[in-house]
Structures are given as structure tokens and as C-alpha cells.
Design brief:
about 15% helix, about 80 residues, four-stranded mixed sheet, alpha+beta, about 20% strand, globular, two-stranded antiparallel ribbon
Length: about 80
């Protein structure tokens, strides 16, 4: 069973980012798949919220979709 992708709107750069899988979050921050570190207070979404997507996160999501991989299968973010 795979988990769905989680998205957030960053208050730091105002871009929509793809969250790293649960379990890979260092204490006090939430990493994104592109490597940004966000405060834990950001709201997470099951679908991308309105806003400009981070180009790196968008490409990672498309690559995962094209290969059938799930964000839950990764042990580290790029």
C-alpha cells in the first residue's frame, strides 16, 4: 500500500512544494522533496494548493507519476 503525496505552500518562498515522506523529518522542520526546510506549522494538503509550484518539486512529482513510484518508497529526499 502506498501513501499519497503531501503538498504545502511555503511561507518562505511562496511556492507550492512536495513534502518528503513521513519519517524523514528532522526535529523541528519539515523537509520538501527539493530540499527546502519549512517550519512545522505549515499546513499540509493532499492536493497541490493554489499557487506557483516549485519547479524541482513539480518535476519530481511528474517523474514519480511516470515511473509509478510513490513518495513513500523513498528513504531520502534529493
Amino acid at each position: 500500500m502506498t501513501r499519497s503525496a503531501r503538498w504545502t505552500l511555503s511561507p518562505l518562498d511562496a511556492c507550492v512544494h512536495l513534502m518528503a515522506p513521513t519519517g524523514e523529518h528532522p526535529p523541528g522542520v519539515l523537509p520538501t522533496r527539493c530540499g527546502h526546510l519549512l517550519p512545522t506549522a505549515v499546513q499540509q494538503h493532499d492536493q497541490p494548493p493554489p499557487g506557483t509550484p516549485c519547479e524541482h518539486c513539480r518535476l519530481i512529482f511528474l517523474a514519480d507519476f511516470a515511473t509509478g513510484d510513490s513518495p513513500a518508497t523513498y528513504t531520502q529526499f534529493p
